[in-house]
Amino acid sequence: QVRLVESGGGLVQAGGSLRISCVASGRTFSSLTMAWFRQAPGKEREFVASISTNTAYGDSVKGRFTISRDNAKNTVLLQMNSLKPEDTAAYYCAATGKIGARWTAGEYGAWGQGTQVTISS
């Protein structure tokens, strides 16, 4: 139903900032709850942030990351500040038609291909 394409990943020094984006197509964007998850080698997929009529953040990123959306551009953004080596992971964009910001990964039916974010010490 929905195609998601992430971009903006790269290599950043610890303490730096990076903004990654996700562009959606195939469904009315404004009707979707959007989220970011991440997965590092050897770890389970972790909830990062989501946005619906409200926003939610994982404990490990709260206060450092900000999620936002531009419905006119069918885009969701993740602004990442004060980056740490622990933030190194593949970041995935996800979408669900459910209302509300916080859902489990299994509730998201559409996923992007991921964008790699690597933080150097």
What helical percentage do the residues reach? Answer: under 10%
Number of helices: 0
Strand elements, count: 11
Q: Could you give a short account of the major beta sheet?
A: 7 strands, mixed
Low-confidence stretches: none
Q: Mean of the pLDDT scores?
A: 95
Task: Determine the structural class based on helices, strands and strand pairing.
Answer: mainly beta
Q: How much of the polypeptide forms β-strand, as a percent range?
A: over 45%
Q: Would you list the SSEs in sequence order as H and E? A: EEEEEEEEEEE
Characterize the structure shown.
The protein is mainly beta. The protein has strands at 3-7, 10-13, 18-25, 33-39, 46-51, 55-57, 65-70, 75-80, 89-96, 110-111, 115-120. Strands 2, 4, 5, 6, 9, 10 and 11 form a 7-stranded mixed sheet that branches. It has a 4-stranded antiparallel sheet with strand order 1-3-8-7, with no helix packed on it. The radius of gyration is 13 Å and the shape is globular. The N and C termini lie far apart (40 Å). The model has no long low-confidence stretch (mean pLDDT 95).
Structure described in brief:
The chain contains no helices and 11 strands. It is mostly beta strands. The strands form 2 sheets. Strands 2, 4, 5, 6, 9, 10 and 11 form a 7-stranded mixed beta sheet that branches. Strands 1-3-8-7 form a 4-stranded antiparallel beta sheet, with no helix packed on it.
